[in-house]
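Give me structure tokens for this 327-residue protein.
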Amino acid sequence: MRFKSLLFAPFLMLFVLFSCAEESKEDKKNKVEKQSVEKSNADEEATTQQELVKTAHSSTHLIKFKVEQPVDDFLVKFNELMNANPGMLVTNTFDHQENAKSSHLTMDFSTFHHLYTNQLVNPLVAENPLTALDLPMRIHFYEEDGEDLVQFIDGNYLIKRYNLSSSTETASSNSRVLNSITQSLSNNEAFTSADLNFKKFEGIDIYQSTLNFNQTAKSILGNIKKKSDVSLLAAHDFQSFAEDAGFEMGKCILLLFGNPKVGTSLMKEKPSLGIDLPLKLLIYEDGDGSTKVASNDMNFIFGLHGYQNRELAEQMNQLAKSLITGN
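Here you go.
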């Protein structure tokens, strides 16, 4: 996927340094242990709830707008507005349609931006690093069944999924800002609102690493490099961005990776999935200094979009696990 990244370059340099360093015996392979995530109810009830999400609801974490103009023209107007607002940075642009062409495939228009502002991102990651799985802010421009659409993540989804308390106003502001911008440019009201029918921390797999942060990052990047059908597409160093703004934050890096053929096939079946692709691995230091790696359970992500493909979801989950463990 084509992308423009302000955060990728420094991390790429970090990867080069890792790769050039002599590898010690103990960090040749990352030994990890999958951890359970706190849930408010029993596992059985949470599983039942997840099945309800997967079968009865569509895009439960999204706010959607119809635009009365070609969505690619709307994107041009949106970019002009972003260029006039130095406080909001477009850190990555993923052009799914162009990426499909690079693999000799076709699909309808589909592009999303990562939007970064220190005020609307740093407090969330500082309270709970897991929120970085859904950050920076994302806005997706796409076509589906002949309609031109714009969608973004509801801030209330962040509050509920990550059990936020001290940064709830910041999370709500994320979607309010995007709602205001989209409404002003489209002259329309949102036609779909989020339906938050899930449990806190649902759909998150967390692994405890036996290595330190740098060794864990090196191990995962090396495992991605070994996969001929998987590419590293971008990386977000949240700590670096926060420190540049004078904000204290622990180490936290989000890796985005994928296979264009698999992603294109998925988005042709369910175009709204374009906002949740490519796949992600979050490497972060916990409050006790230990290193953890988190990923989305794709069964949960598919369910949010009203899409079911358990076999493919499990294949994607296993890919993420193999990149973490090296197995």
